[in-house]
Write a structure and sequence with these properties.
Helix content of chain A is about 50%, strand content about 0%. Chain A is mostly helical and about 140 residues long. The longest helix of chain A is centred in the middle third of the chain and has 23 residues. Chain B has eight helices and nine strands. The longest helix of chain B has about 35 residues. Classes of the chains: A mainly alpha (about 140), B alpha+beta (about 260).
């Protein structure tokens, strides 16, 4: 039972310093949705970030709980951790398939140029430093 | 191969408080610094392009774990700066190739930034959330109870009784939700009256676990620092049975970064 008249306060209102770390959902809704928009040189696809915010919002309660229990399940969730990778994989498969079709259905053993090209593209993707340390089950 | 850097923007400020950034490290562990142009400055850091360049960023921000780390690190810098002086927080992932781009920005939009900084000066953002308990949302005590005494019920029969109960339940729920909406509107209006400016964020999702309360207000308020305690006390006092009020902050003025004329 929660006490009916309870009013809780987070942080030390009125003082510059904070006593406890802010809730992740509160931070994300501010740093991703608010703050001044300045057109920098580098554009991160904002639509993706918006979708991500929604996803993160949906998951945040679970994430916090999972953390408490020492579970990092999202690193194994294909829609969260390896979205880019599976996109690259899919890309590679599609290119391979196109290559095969363009070769009139001949086997790739006779050269496989499209596959090589695709391999290089997917390798470039995998070698990104941002992926280091991220578990991703294939 | 030399390490390439890009410039990460944390916030826009006017003249920097001396020593504020000493030893302060940013999202990439870099020493945070300021570039100034015409009395307006940008709090920036040089970060590794391999980690915070376009492609890497797109990927890392798509992962909750890394997004959290970057968001918290960004927020830490913005918060530190905004606690000491007026600051306009930059949205996450504002990145330039070099300092020239940042200087051009400051030269171009300096007047606008200066105006916003004056408006934000000696003010802070407070968050107020109102959580409605399930009992309040179910409308318990708001609708008349269905007559299920033998007298009233026997004449009706089990099916009719069920439907009548069901309708009463739905009516109560409807009343409960209306009550919660009205309450959050009232609290928001009251708080907006104490604030310089107010805005609403989307309600966050229901909490997991045994607490099934639902967020019915997620407001942000720009408040004169001198009135922060008063505001906070008024917010807390607006809670009532079935509706809990949570005050968060003080926040850097993220929700008011667009200035008074937004």
């Amino acid at each position: 039972m929660t006490q009916p008249w309870s009013a809780r306060q987070a942080g030390t209102v009125g003082l510059p310093g904070r006593s406890e770390p802010a809730n992740l959902a509160d931070i994300l809704e501010r740093v991703l949705d608010k703050g001044i928009v300045i057109a920098g040189d580098i554009r991160v696809n904002l639509l993706d970030i918006e979708l991500l915010t929604i996803r993160v919002r949906l998951l945040i309660a679970s994430v916090d709980r999972a953390r408490e229990m020492g579970i990092d399940w999202w690193e194994h969730d294909p829609t969260l951790s390896s979205g880019q990778r599976s996109l690259a994989d899919e890309n590679r498969r599609l290119r391979q398939r196109i290559g095969e079709l363009e070769n009139g259905g001949s086997q790739r053993s006779d050269g496989g140029v499209p596959a090589d090209e695709a391999e290089a593209a997917s390798h470039k993707n995998d070698s990104s430093p941002a992926r280091q340390g991220q578990g991703s089950s294939g | 191969m030399a390490e390439e850097h890009v410039i990460w923007v944390y916030a826009i400020i006017s003249v920097l408080e001396p020593g504020l950034l000493d030893g302060l490290t940013g999202i990439g562990g870099e020493q945070v610094r300021v570039v100034t142009e015409h009395d307006v400055g940008a709090v920036i850091g040089s970060v590794d392009a391999r980690m915070f360049g376009e492609e890497a960023l797109q990927q890392s921000l798509a992962q909750p774990g890394e997004l959290e780390a970057v968001a918290r690190a960004h927020h830490h810098i913005v918060e530190t700066v905004a606690a000491a002086q007026a600051a306009i927080p930059a949205r996450l992932a504002t990145v330039y190739r070099d300092e020239t781009g940042v200087r051009d920005l400051l030269a171009e939009r300096g007047d606008e930034f200066a105006g916003t900084l004056r408006w934000l000066s000696s003010r802070l953002e407070l968050g107020v959330k109102v959580w409605a308990d399930p009992s309040l949302l179910a409308g318990e005590g708001t609708a008349e109870q269905v007559d299920i005494t033998p007298d009233g019920g026997a004449a009706a029969g089990a099916g009719t009784l069920y439907l009548r109960q069901r309708r009463a339940h739905l009516t109560a729920r409807e009343a409960g939700h209306q009550h919660a909406t009205r309450l959050s509107d009232e609290i928001h209006a009251m708080l907006a009256g104490l604030a310089v400016s107010a805005c609403l964020h989307a309600a966050q999702d229901p909490r997991s676990g045994d607490d099934h309360s639902q967020m019915v207000l997620n407001g942000a308020y720009l408040v004169d620092s001198a009135r922060a305690e008063e505001f906070s006390a008024a917010a807390v006092a607006s809670g009532q049975e079935g509706a809990r009020v949570e005050v968060t902050g003080p926040w850097p003025p993220y929700s008011f970064a667009d200035g008074p004329d937004r």
